[in-house]
């Protein structure tokens, strides 16, 4: 089992520290004002959903990859 599978301070997607502010005032965490598209949760292993936070880097990477996909497709 990876660190992400055992500890909530690690991103369930990449396994790096997620910078979560759990236990701190809510407004101090970076994710308080972040938007998480539904699709990003498909990248989290099912047994890890709602057990640890996705890191900012994985969120930014997902958003950028999906923006690129949207930008390369022309509307009908």
How is this structure best described in words?
The protein is mainly alpha-helical and 76 residues long. The protein has one domain. The chain contains two helices and no strands. It has helices at residues 3-6, 56-72. The radius of gyration is 14 Å and the shape is globular. The model is unreliable at 1-5 (pLDDT under 50).
Summarize the structure.
The protein is mainly α.
Cα(first) to Cα(last) distance is 45 Å
- Uncertain regions: pLDDT < 50 for 5+ in a row? 1-5
Q: Look at the structure and give the mean pLDDT.
A: 82
Quaternary: single chain
Strand content: under 5%
Structural class: mainly alpha
Q: How many discrete structural domains?
A: 1
* Shape, principal axes of CA atoms: globular
The topology string of helices and strands comes to HH
Largest sheet: none
Helical segment tally?
2
Question: What order do the helices and strands come in, and which of them pair?
Answer:
Blueprint: H1 3-6, H2 56-72
Feature tags:
globular; disordered N terminus; 76 residues; mainly alpha
């Amino acid at each position: 089992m990876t660190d992400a599978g055992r500890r909530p301070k690690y991103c369930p997607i990449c396994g790096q520290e997620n910078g979560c502010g759990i236990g701190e005032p809510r407004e101090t965490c970076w994710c308080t004002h972040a938007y998480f598209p539904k699709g990003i949760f498909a990248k989290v292993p099912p047994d890890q959903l709602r057990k640890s936070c996705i890191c900012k880097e994985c969120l930014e990477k997902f958003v950028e990859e999906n923006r690129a996909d949207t930008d390369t497709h022309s509307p009908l």
